[in-house]
Write a structure and sequence with these properties.
two-stranded antiparallel sheet, binds adenosine-5'-triphosphate, single chain, Kinesin, about 40% helix, alpha+beta
Length: about 180
């Protein structure tokens, strides 16, 4: 799971010197090795690989849930697992903001976060596709069917903004959720 030699700097904050050039060069070095995630402190930069990479699995979610943040390579799972643990252990609402230009990969990133939250809420037991979180996944697909369109920048562009909320009970299991869409 370690990134190994020549993978660049996993946290851009540690680049010396830190400039636009070194930042972009570091992202490029990592991208060439199919490493699409890089931290900037507690934020995560994701580069759209435009092809499926073997970066996602329930087993990997469990690995991120089991380790403190920053002990494993940068990943959306690390961000989501930390948010989930803070909801469960500190009883604090958490928010993950995903931003970027059209086609940057926001919708895919939200899907990955939701997948991670589903597995986390199922106690890391598996795909955990049932219940509130499974319904949210299905609702997202349904909204895309009506609210997405092909554009010059993205073959599956969301034509609306999306606020996705998941509610967890005191055991950390998802019990409800909402998707609010805005034009
Ligand atoms: N992590 C990823 N792995 C593989 N392919 C990806 C990934 N992220 C994005 N893509 C590809 O890029 C396309 C565009 O991504 P996505 O729809 O998530 O962009 P977006 O930022 O939500 O765009 P928009 O704002 O136009 O809706 C996806 O349909 C998919 O083909």
């Amino acid at each position: 799971m370690a990134e190994g030699e020549g993978a660049g700097q996993p946290d851009a904050v540690l680049l010396a010197p830190l400039s636009e050039d070194t930042f972009l060069h570091n992202l490029h070095v990592r991208y060439k090795r199919d490493i699409i995630y890089t931290y900037v402190g507690n934020a995560l930069v994701s580069v759209n690989p435009c092809r499926a990479l073997p970066l996602y699995s329930a087993e990997l979610v469990r690995a991120y849930l089991a380790r403190p943040p920053y002990q494993l390579p940068p990943h959306l799972y690390a961000i989501t697992a930390t948010a989930y643990q803070w909801v469960r252990d500190r009883n604090e609402s958490q928010c993950i903001v995903i931003t970027g230009e059209s086609g940057a990969g926001k919708t895919e990133a939200a899907r990955v976060c939701l997948q991670c939250a589903v597995v986390a809420g199922a106690g890391g037991a598996g795909a955990g596709d049932a219940g509130a979180a499974g319904a949210l996944t299905a609702a997202g697909t349904l909204l895309e069917a009506f609210g997405n369109a092909a554009t010059a920048r993205n073959h599956n562009a969301s034509r609306f903004g999306k606020l996705l909320e998941i509610e967890f009970d005191f055991k950390g299991e998802p019990v409800g959720g909402h998707i609010t869409h805005c034009e």
